[in-house]
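Page 37, continued from 36.
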């Protein structure tokens, strides 16, 4: 009977997505992450997923090396090759996984923008405003307000002159 050795390494990953628009209105997205090694309770924060992969790889490498130092004598080179096959598979699928995540993020952003636009349109309708104001009417109203402000400014200046003249006579 061949004796086998089972070692366990567990990790908890948490991702947080931040969406924002810059001063020019361009949308941006940033992913931040948090990783924790369950058995050791060690954790780290990252903005680049490669940092999380390095965190995991460090623990799995250590686990493999510890397994080689104790127990039955084994061909170390063969064990390390077998152990690192998981990283070869991960590296091959990493780009596809990240690309799919980005596509999903873009789709979510577009859906959010569409929902926001629909909500804004409903709100404008509720207030009986048109989403695209009549610019001619708007310009006319602004010109009327500007004329009224000029008239009031002239009246205030006349009142100030009159008040100054009365003050000077005393």
């Amino acid at each position: 009977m061949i004796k086998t050795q089972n070692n366990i390494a567990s990790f908890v990953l948490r991702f947080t997505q931040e969406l924002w628009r810059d001063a020019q209105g361009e949308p941006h997205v940033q992913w931040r992450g948090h990783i924790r090694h369950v058995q050791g309770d060690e954790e780290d924060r990252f903005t680049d997923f490669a940092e999380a992969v390095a965190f995991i790889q460090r623990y799995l490498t250590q686990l493999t090396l510890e397994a080689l130092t104790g127990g039955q004598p084994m061909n170390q080179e063969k064990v390390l090759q077998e152990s690192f096959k998981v990283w070869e598979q991960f590296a091959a699928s990493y780009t596809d996984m990240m690309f799919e995540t980005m596509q999903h993020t873009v789709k979510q952003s577009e859906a959010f923008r569409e929902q926001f636009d629909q909500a804004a349109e409903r709100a404008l309708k509720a207030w009986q405003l048109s989403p695209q104001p009549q610019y001619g009417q708007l310009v006319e109203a602004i010109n009327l307000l500007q004329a009224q402000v000029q008239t009031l400014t002239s009246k205030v200046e006349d009142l100030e002159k009159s008040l100054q003249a009365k003050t000077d006579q005393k």
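Residues 11-126 form one domain. Flag for discussion at group meeting. The first strand starts at residue 11 and ends at 21.
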